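Recall the central idea of this unit: under ordinary conditions, the amino acid sequence of a chain determines the structure it adopts. In this exercise we apply that idea directly, starting from the sequence alone.
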Amino acid sequence: MLIMSVFFICTGTAASEDSSPAAEISDQAQKAHDQTPAVLPPIEENETQLSSVGKVYVKKFKLEGNAIFSDEDLTPITSPYEGREITAEELQEVKNKLSGYYYVNGYVNSGAIIPDQKVENGIILLNIIEGKLSQTEISENTWLRTGYILSRLDLATKDGKLPFNVNVMQDHLKLLKQDPRVKNIHADFAPGLERGEGILNVQVEEARPYHLTLRFNNHNSPSIGPYRGEAELQHLNLTGWGDSLTAQYALTEGLDDYSVNYTVPLTRRDTTLSFDFDRSESVVVSEAFEELDIKSDTTTYAAALRHPFYKSLSSEFAMGIRFEKRHTETSLLGRGFAFPDSGADEETGETDFTMIRFSQEWVNRSLVQVVAAYSSVNMGNVDEGKYEGGFFTWVGQFQWLRRLRLFNSQLLFSLNMQLSDSSLISAEKFAIGGSSTVRGYRENQMTPDNGLTTYLEWRIPVMQLKIPGLSKGPNDGTFQLCPFFDFGKGWNTESNDPDPDNIYSAGIGARWSVNERISAEIYWGESLKDVEESGEYDIQDDGVHFQINVGLF
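Accordingly, the structure predicted from this sequence is:
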C-alpha cells in the first residue's frame, strides 16, 4: 500500500531576559507589540497549498488514473467527505479507503496517493496508481519451457495491459496446475523497484511426462476374440511446448490394432491440432466361420482442430472439427466380399469414405457434481461402396456424476444417442451391447443406424484394501460396489429394425483402485430381454465384463 505523510510546521517565540534600560524600553515596546493583535496577509480561499494547512474545505474530489473502477464505483468512498471541511487525518482516511477498496478486490499493489497541490475552488486531486506486474520469474521447470508457462500466466494481465490482480492470477495458476504436465505449482508476489510495480516468483513441480500403461479386458466381440491386451506409451511433452505423442497397440486372438496420435497446442489458450493414424487387421475366429477365412483390414487417417471458447476452473466450452479418411477391405476365402449391411462394394469388398465431424463440448464441475455434454454433427461421403454418396449423422452424449452424502457414494448417469438420415456403412453404425453400453449382453449385440443407450450406476465405497508399498495415498485401496441398470434401443433408417429392437439389464460391479496407476473392475449383468444366441459360448453370454489397468510408469 502506498503511504503519504502530510507535515505541519508550528512556530513559536521566546522572551528575552536582558534587564538594561534599553532592554526595558525594548521590553515595553515588545509588550506593546504583543498586546497589539497580529495582522497577517489573508489566505485566499480559492488557492491554498494543501500541505500547509491542517483543515481544508472539500467541495469535490477529482480522481485521476483509475481505469479498472470508474468514478461512480469510487464515489461511495469519497462522497461522505465532500461538501464540508475535513482534517488532514480525514484526508488520509479517504486515501486509505480508496487503497483498501483496490486491495480487497485483488489489486494488491494498487492504491491512491495525495499529491501536494494548490486547492482551487475546493477541488482536491487524488491520483490512483493501478499496479502492474513488471516481472515474472519461473524456476524449477525442466521439461516444460519457460515460455510455455509464461504465455499462459500472461493471460491474467493480458500481456501487461491490465493491472495486476492477485485473484485473477491465482485462477490462472490453478488452471495451469490442471495441466497434466504440472504436478504442483507455488507462487509468491513481491513489490518491485518502482511504485506500483510487482514481481511474481513461480516455482513449478513438473509431473513425469512419459507413461506406459498396460490393460487387459474382455471388451471385444467374441467373433474376433473377446480377450484384449493393450499397451499404451505416451509422452506429454515432446519438445517442451506441451505437444504429446501417444502410441497404442492392441491384440486379441483375431485382431491386431495399432494407432498413433500427435497433438500440438497452437495457442496459449489451448487450441490444439491433432493428427491420427490407425491400422487394424482382423479375422473372424469363431469355430463356425473359421474355415471361411473372413478378414477385414481398415486404415484411417485423421486431422482435428479443437478450441476452448471458454475455460475456467469450474467449466469449459469447446468446439472442434475433425477430418477423416478411411479405407476398409473385407474378404472371404481370400477374395473381396461384401457382407450384408456392411456398405462395402459388392465386387471388391472395399469401402472408401471421408468424414467431417463438427463437435461441441461442455463440462461443468463443482464440489459435489460433474455435468458434461457432447454433440457431434457428422457429414460423410462414401467414395466407393454400396452406399455411394453422402450421409449425415448426429451423435449426442450426456453424463452426470453426483456425490452423495449417503455412504459417501457417487451416482452416475449416462445417455448416448445417434440419429442418421440414411443407411450407414458398418463403421458408422451405433453399437449396442457390452461393457460400455448395455452390460449383460455381448459386445455389439446389435448395430443399427440409430440408437439410444443409457445407464444409471451407484458407486458405494465399502472398504479400503491397501497393498503395502503400493497403496500410499489416503484414497488408495478404495473398494466399491456398483449396482446398475442399463437400457438400449436401436432402429434402422431404411432397412428392417433389429429384433428385438431394445435390450436392458441390471446387475452389480466391483471396482478396486489400488492407487492412481493400478485398478481393476468386474461387472456382472443379468440380461432382462432374451436374444437369440449366436456363436460359441463366451463369458459375455453370462454377463461378465472385466478390465485391469496397470501403469508401469
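The first strand starts at residue 48 and ends at 49.
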